[in-house]
Write a structure and sequence with these properties.
Blueprint (H helix, E strand, L loop, with lengths): L1 H28 L9 H21 L8
Helix pairs in contact: 1-2
Length: 67
């Protein structure tokens, strides 16, 4: 059970980090210039997407094959 959880947390964590990065890139990309970036929005949207990613991962991850 511990090995299964370890694989899950690694896969879910990797997926969440990628989702956070993608959200940050998309949110920053909506500004015309770097001075116009609303950094609070970038951080809050990115963290929220990471949390949602972890919650969705509870349903299951295709990266982890069930035995």
């Amino acid at each position: 059970m511990k090995e299964k959880f370890s694989k899950w947390i690694k896969a879910a964590g990797t997926r969440a980090v990628k989702t956070v990065a993608e959200t940050a890139i998309a949110t920053i990309g909506t500004s015309a210039v770097i001075n116009e970036v609303d950094w609070r929005l970038v951080i809050s949207a990115s963290l929220l997407s990471g949390i949602i990613s972890l919650l969705i991962s509870i349903k299951g991850l295709p990266e982890i094959k069930e035995a």
